[in-house]
Amino acid sequence: MKAIIIYALLLLALIDVGSSLTLTSGQRIAPRKSQTTSVAENLPKEDVEITSLSSQSCIPQSFFDLPSVEKWGEENGLKQHHLKTIYRVVMNSSSTFMSNEKDSTANNIFLEDKLRALDFPKKHIPSLLSKFTYTCTIHHIEKSQGGAKFVIQLQNGKLVESVLIEHTRPNGVKRYTVCVSSQIGCAKKCSFCATGTMGLVGQLSSGEILEQIHLLNQYVQKEYSTHGKEGSIRNVVFMGMGEPLDTYDAVHESLRGITHQCLFGLKAKQVTLSTVGASAQKIRALADEAPQVCLALSLHSAIQSSREELIPSAISSPIDDIGDALDYHALKSGRGSMLEYLLIDGVNDSDEEVDALAEFCLKRKGSIYVNLIPYNPTLAGDDFGYRTPSDERISVFHEKLKEAGVKALVRWSTTNGRDANGACGQLALSSSLEE
């Protein structure tokens, strides 16, 4: 009898785990089995309270906070098709985004009408719209050659930056890449990066990351359809403000939303996560949990001492450990990795640096592709006297890599956006915007 009772309890536990409401239909990346970091992890003390506001019942949460929406749905006895209805309405909403109280009310009326038309349970609509909303707005847009930089205001009043990059194919069709931020500021203090001068102000939730994409997607659909141009967002890169691996749980959950067919519907290979190698362990976790997401490592030097000068946090991630993590990622994903290498005149563009980079690449078990990025001037880099190498020196560095058998390309396009301080390494909010 005791054995039967134990078996029954185990069976009930399994049923309970399996009955958890998750929007699995159309899912390309599964939720994490365990959450290892919290939204407030590593935050300055004064900002922990601000960030935790979104978890209070009286403060509306983002429609794009998938775990919270799914938890609410489970608590209210909803089914997966109800979650699909919510996201069909939320994703296709073309109304304004919480710019003022009047627009907020208009949003709710719009969403309520759409939900009712799709036979969503009417008794749950007031609860849904009181608990969830669009939490981000476009505060400011700076257009530039090849795209635009967006300053996004969060629900707590803080600001982050996102970038829209425009590509025109030979047939004239336009495609867009969205560069998203995962943190407000950054703790890594890379010597060449403007964002590092801000320090770490706060972490973004998965919903806030996804809302950046939604806002820019809405902008593309409105702005370019008005001008008779076709266009769509085809790629998302985590190359904005912050180190994605320092807020891994939120980033992973946003990867689920980006690739989910009921939301943005991108394939995992259309998403790139860029890291300065903040954690070899989390590179391995990404390989286990989202192997088809492209990995880009901001190496900037294959000589450990040089790398530590450029990236102070590299002292805790030795070059050999990062190399082993890349090998593991290649094994699990079946594909190689991309290295980002910022070329700075007289700092990391010597023949010794080329040789070390080539050796590092050729030792890897998976294929490696190197993006050579000419340094974009920043106030942070100015303090160190950094300059962009001459075109001739960049070409020599490039040729030496190719001669060694390393695939590499000079990304001249990364200079696009300099006029709006939206080019690679230049994202940092001005004090005038924070006031």
Automatic annotation (TrEMBL):
- Asked if the record carries the keyword Methyltransferase, the reply is yes
Give the Radical SAM core domain ranges: 172-419
What superkingdom does the record give? Eukaryota
Zinc-finger as a keyword of this entry, yes or no, is no
Which InterPro entries does the entry mention? Aldolase_TIM, Methyltransferase_A, rRNA_lsu_MTrfase_RlmN/Cfr, rSAM, rSAM_sf
- Cross-referenced SUPFAM superfamilies: Radical SAM enzymes
Q: Which GO terms describe its cellular component?
A: cytoplasm
Q: Which Pfam families match?
A: Radical_SAM
- Reported cofactor(s): [4Fe-4S] cluster
Give the signal peptide range: 1-20
Keywords, in A-Z order: 4Fe-4S, Cytoplasm, Iron, Iron-sulfur, Metal-binding, Methyltransferase, S-adenosyl-L-methionine, Signal, Transferase
**Single GO BP term:** rRNA base methylation
**Which compartment or compartments is the protein found in?**
Cytoplasm
UniProt GO MF annotations: 4 iron, 4 sulfur cluster binding; metal ion binding; RNA methyltransferase activity
What name does the UniProt record give this protein? Radical SAM core domain-containing protein
